[in-house]
């Protein structure tokens, strides 16, 4: 079993949002699910591990924000005046929001592990993990990194055809 990070110990449930292909609305569903859970009074975070297409910062209109460091790691970006949703995305680490991420597997996998271990989420009822399209190494890295925690399940987004 991998070493557990204390940064996820305050997270009650983790949900993965997956699909076998791109363009089916994973990021939209992740965002809407987070907003709906927050509307019901839950503390919510979104971890955007779609490293080549980080769209959630733009969807939540926080693409111009920066990630800061604290003693326990990276502080996620908080959405809204009430800091209703915590968000971590590679989109915050790029020089410009539209910069392309052209990385090979090992570098992507290392960042995913770092997102799991080094983000100071605090106490959350739900952490929604928005994944990239397909069934790549990033999915395996994400599931392996989250294995020691309370993974509630996965939502598989499909198209009717």
TrEMBL record:
Keywords: 4Fe-4S, ATP-binding, Iron, Iron-sulfur, Metal-binding, Nucleotide-binding. Pfam families: ParA. Gene3D superfamilies: P-loop containing nucleotide triphosphate hydrolases (3.40.50.300). GO terms for cellular component: cytosol. This is NUBP2 factor. SUPFAM superfamilies: P-loop containing nucleoside triphosphate hydrolases. It comes from the Eukaryota. CDD domains: Mrp_NBP35. GO terms for molecular function: 4 iron, 4 sulfur cluster binding; ATP binding; ATP-dependent FeS chaperone activity; metal ion binding. PROSITE patterns: MRP. GO terms for biological process: iron-sulfur cluster assembly. It comes from Cephalopterus ornatus. The gene is Nubp2. InterPro entries: Mrp-like_CS, Mrp/NBP35_ATP-bd, P-loop_NTPase, YlxH/NBP35.
């Amino acid at each position: 079993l991998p070493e557990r990070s204390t940064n996820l110990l305050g997270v009650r449930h983790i949900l993965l949002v997956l699909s076998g292909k791109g363009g089916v609305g994973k990021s939209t569903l992740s965002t809407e699910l987070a907003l709906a859970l927050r509307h019901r009074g839950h503390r919510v975070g979104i971890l955007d591990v779609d490293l080549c297409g980080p769209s959630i910062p733009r969807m939540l209109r926080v693409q111009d924000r920066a990630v800061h460091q604290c003693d326990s790691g990276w502080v996620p970006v908080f959405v809204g005046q009430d800091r209703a949703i915590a968000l971590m995305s590679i989109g915050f680490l790029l020089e410009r929001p539209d910069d392309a991420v052209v990385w090979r597997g090992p570098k992507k996998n290392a960042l995913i592990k770092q997102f799991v271990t080094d983000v100071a989420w605090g106490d959350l009822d739900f952490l929604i993990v928005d994944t990239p399209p397909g069934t790549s190494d990033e999915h395996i890295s994400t599931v392996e990194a989250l294995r020691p925690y309370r993974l509630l399940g996965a939502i598989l987004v499909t198209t009717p055809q």
